[in-house]
Amino acid sequence: MESFKSYIIIDDAESDVNSFERIEDARCVQLEPRLLPGETVIALAPHVLKFSPLCERKHGVSGDLFITNFKISFVTPQDAADADGITERNQLLSSYDICLMNVDRIYSLHSGGRRKLLVPGSNLTGAVRELQILCKDLSSHLFGFKFVPNGAERAIVNAMLHHCYPKRVELHFAFECRLPATQDVPGVSMFRQAQDWDEELRRCHSSTGWRICYANENYQVCPSLSEVIVVSSDLTDDDIAKASASFRGNRPPIWCWGHKSGCVIVRMSTVSADSSPSSNAMIDRKQENEKVESIMLENIRKAHSRRKQPLILELDTLLPPVKDLQNSFVKLRDLICVPPDSMRILWDQDDRFLSQLESTRWLHMVSSCLRLASTVSRVIMDQKVSVVLQESSGRDWSAIISSLAQILLDSHCRTIQGFHSLVQKEWVALGHSFSTRLGRWTVSDGEQSPLFNLFLDCVWQILQQFPAQFEFTSTYLITIWDSMHLSVFDTFLFDSPRDRKCAVLDNQTPLTSRSVWDWSLQYDENEQELFYNPLYPISKRVVETRQSLGLPPTDPTPAPPASQLTSQLAQTLMTSSLNLGYPNIRTRSGSISSLNRHSSYLEDLKLDGTETLNRSWMKAGSRSSLFGAGWNKIKGVAFGTSPRPSRILEEYEKSMLEGEIIDAMGTLKAGTVSTRNSVKDAFTPPSITPRHKNGGTNRWTVCDGQSLGQSRRSLQQSEDELRNVPVPWHKIDWSVYTVLPVMPLVANLKFWAQCYARFFPVFDIRGGGDLTNFCQNWGYVDELMMLENTIASLEAELNYYNQKSPKSRSGSISRRVSSSNSSIRARTPTPIQEEAVDYSSNPSLILLRQKPLSSLSAFYPFTSQRVLNDKGSHIRSSAEFDLRVKPEEEHYEGDFIVIS
Amino acid sequence: MSSSSSVSNENATDTAIKVTVHNRSDSLSFDDIPLLSGEKLHGTAKEVTYLCPHIGPIKGNLTVTNYKLYFKGTEKGHPFILDVPLGVVARIEKVGGVSSRGENSYGIELHCKDMRNLRFAHKQENHSRRNLFEKLQQYAFPLTHKLPLFAFELQEVYAENGWSVYEPVAELKRMGLPTESWIINTRINDNYDICDTYPAVWGVPAMATEDDLRNVAGFRSRGRLPVLSWINPETQASITRCAQPMIGVSGRRCREDERYVQMILDANAQAHKLFILDARPSVNAVANKARGGGYETDDCYPNAELVFLDIHNIHVMRESLRKLKEICFPLIDDARWLSNLESTHWLEHIKCVLAGAVRVVDKVENNRTSVMIHCSDGWDRTAQLTSLSMLMLDSYYRTLKGFEVLIEKEWLSFGHKFAQRIGHGDDRYQDADRSPVFVQFIDCVWQVMNQFPHAFEFNEHLLITILDHLYSNLFGTFFCNSELQRVKEDIKNRTVSIWSFINSHSEDFMNPLYCAAVSSNQVLVPVASLRHLRLWTSYYCRWNPRFRAQEPVGARSKQLLALKAQLQKKVDDLRKELESRGPRVNVPRVSSPVYG
């Protein structure tokens, strides 16, 4: 790419013009942007300079700038020359393109470092010499108009100001794009039809107690929900329609996910009520609404397999307002995406990076979400209690917490298809207002909040902590991050399913539906390989083998929180229901004894002035009315005043931690099925250590409540069988989780440099980074799979010989195990005879051996050392992907701190 | 001997290495205390409570040997075990006195060098504290009490001999010496006459006479003249290390030194300039003039370009690590974690050192220029810079063996004052000469490793083990301040080398992700930005269970390799079995589902 790095020194106008003209001469073709069907050019300005970042506007690229109804396209002569040869990595955008929907702010830069925000929709009158475009994906672009023929720059800037900020969603390119509609992606539920919900219900073991409800047909009950919803089976459609009026946005409590044990996650908005009821009628109304809320909660209780009371998390108080999130995001953007022009200032500021990052509070937001999600998962796994996520709108934080909790709890959500379905369900079908939150039209300015971005960051953090548990890679998450702002797709375009449906059914400009999940629109197959985590097939294989042999998962952190808060919660839940007249309830004094250990912190909670468990429990005790505030809600301290979301949760977490340690010393030592030594220990029966001296349930929860006795029996039974399994997948020391024990502290989190710092080549780890891990693991896994296949075929061959005295059993098992091959993405076949080569001695051979890998080698050319690039993440920009020859001195000098 | 890892749970096996236990017949011995050969029990106290900052108080018995402190909980079943080499103890304090009331307020607190403090509460009525305190003092600080360090008593035998890992001449030959311009001089410092903190074998410019060398040594601080650290055999760009020139306020000059520097420049035909990197901040370099030191000036060294790297001195680093311990142990303030971390400046210092090394790499690799590195005395920051840049430039140093050579060469033989910086067996915890310079180097290696996971043959566990035995006094490697002292003390014959232990268990220290084919010839250029640098929590915060990695990467990849070996064996076995049945006739191949 050196050739198009034309060095243009702005200060020296004379040589400038010369070098520029030289480029001009080299131009043999008229520059044109690549256009998609339906895309038209609106304005263009020739001879525009695009500056490289951090070069003090000293060098960059020269080319023509186009505005189309889809993108801002910057085309260089080099691009034009390459047009036939190299296909773009992203089939929708070229390397210098910016989708109009991605544009966040446009500034005009003036001398002396001043910059002026250009108001959307306004008409520019003065001259613009340099233009800065900040994007929603956190990239920034700098253009210079010095050589642009008079007036052309004004025209193009005005075009930008008008077309980047449409007043209605219908003005986005998705409505004009003539690309074909996407087909349904196999395996991905779109949650538009009842069938999808039905399958999900069955997948989640929630068919009893919950049912499909059609009350919202034609969105007559609630405009922000999908037409099909899942509600408690005791409620009629009529009940739902009536009850929904009592909730904000008419959103009745909605089932989202269920666990085998009968626990579910329910999302619910708060009851609609004015903050200061003035008239009696309104007070009545409020009471009426609360009564409806209680009835709904009561139905959730009844839907639980053991009729346990749900735990209600009031997200409004546990998490900050969405506005704060937006502020945090803006600060983050200012920190990472608009670094100073000069490299020197950047490095000087780099020392202050950590405290600046802290002051954005972004990681604190991530931490809060992970903490809550972890609580939800623990409550469901350990206490077998349903969780209700209550939030005023019911469409923002609850989407994050619910989907994160599902990622922790449900391995299906950690696959690519499962993740697509999860986003489709929690975000799209249940009406996260993408259009408003992502600022798709000008009016929504004040309501912007990057909840989905936060969600992606959270998922990335979990992925970092459990790198083998996800089918996808961080590259995949970054690709979603970028695709959020592509106006070809409608997935992230609308506020609600209703808006989308209206657009599709519109008579004049019907929307052709294109889903972002059809990656083939953007990337060819080889590039999609980057989405797949090479370690996942191993995890999957281990799980499948263990399951087929009836072995429990090797959960390294068995059942933490037995004690303290959760048991307390459970007790409280049960006790409070005493007053509601349910049978089988312990007495109050019984639960108090269990509180003794933590009585002091409960005192603390009172001092905090928050509504404590204690108090609500007391309240429940003193209340005579059948319904009322008898439900346990966990609230936090207002987020702004204290960085800690809730003492309760903190203590809870602590108890989790203590549980872990004692377990580590106790159970693991006892030779249970632990992660380590599992080869040896898997065959010794796990011993059960009592959780509490004073009795209590087992600390050890094996695989969704499967009892130890059972698993032990099955262990013994299967022992014979094990010897015959060709590939001992179940024996390897490989963590298989029932629930991911995520570590949510800010100190455990990382800065997502791979996503946030990718627009600055100085932060590239040349020849290193995560991608080398990826490649190496890929090599190993591929080899393993190949060996496995060889074994299968050799054994088959042996069987053929042995037909007289068949070892049919071993054969059948081998086939069963290897049949999972096909489900693990069939790789390009390799002739089995090939394995004589000793790959271990030359790993580059491994990488080049198979087709997917050799195609990958275009990304990370292992064969040519020193030129690797860390940025598989940023597939879109081809420039960054290209083999970099080791930079010359002049460039390179810039990368260093100049100390004088 | 778990490498001073505390909680003996399965998770900690990552940092724990098992060593066979020989001596169980000691008279004082309790059956359940694992002893190394040569280790003896010296005291024990019953009914002691270990106040764990994470779990809470644990009752048990505390035993002191001449090597370690061993605490075992009395809890039935699977007791809590704490096994700490006494070498890590920096200071022992009594907590509470006769008048102390309240549970657990009377006891002993141990401040450790490895980022933790241990508190034990005694029962006053047992009168166990005094005896224990004395024993701890004696065996934690044997030198103060005229006792030998434990390494001199260790009788363990290892399969490998770590003392033979580093052969100075062989190492210089590996880099292509002697050449036209560089020779190996084994004679001049044979008796450590010219420089008592340098090794006996030097690589020096061929042009320089022995008189030259003597004169140059006279002009450099502590006689530490420029000597070759590394040379690129292809480009002849070299890295030389030395101490500051003794210029002083009066601006002394030394013709021989100037000529000598010119020789180093001339040895590299491709360059017309020599880069001199002074690791210090320029202010400090100027201040050093008052003490007779200084830096190379333009007029005396016209063909040299001097750059200051702004790395602070040992005192700043010590203070920084002290602050880091404060925020890491026992509890962390999560809400202000990042800004607290920043206020320790630890990562900033790491970044500075790394950036300096990257600069060296840039000059040597990209400009093919020779580089001369010094600070004040050339044994702290200089060692960091040379060893790090060599690690990045030469893939040999990224193998297990090469890394051992690197430490032996750049740190031990060139006189990093380990005894002073660490204070083995010495109770003067406030000694101003102590500093975590070597820890910082290992941290930098970890950072590079983090950015280039495939480029190192060894793993993180090796780094942690080296740091653990830097303090443990189990091995003699890090004793003394210079090669001369080590020869005098006969360390090689009287103690075991840490490399003996490591090379005997090398499979534990291998990085399964290592890709030799890619890594060889690769020059690593890490990004020295706080966007990429991370706190090494698995070392600094390893006592905190909240930082225990759920899925250790190394373990996982190791599993893959082990599995691969198993499968390969299975394939071979099957092949053999098939072949034993005679020639392969046309067997209809059962298509596997993949190819089906």
Automatic annotation (TrEMBL), chain B:
GO terms for cellular component: cytoplasm; endomembrane system; membrane. Its main location: cytoplasm. Residues 162-540 form the Myotubularin phosphatase domain. It is an enzyme of class 3 (hydrolase). Keywords: Cytoplasm, Hydrolase, Lipid metabolism, Membrane. This is phosphatidylinositol-3,5-bisphosphate 3-phosphatase. Its EC number is 3.1.3.95. It holds the Pfam family GRAM. Substrate binds at N313, I314, C375, S376, D377, G378, W379, D380, R381. The active site is at C375.
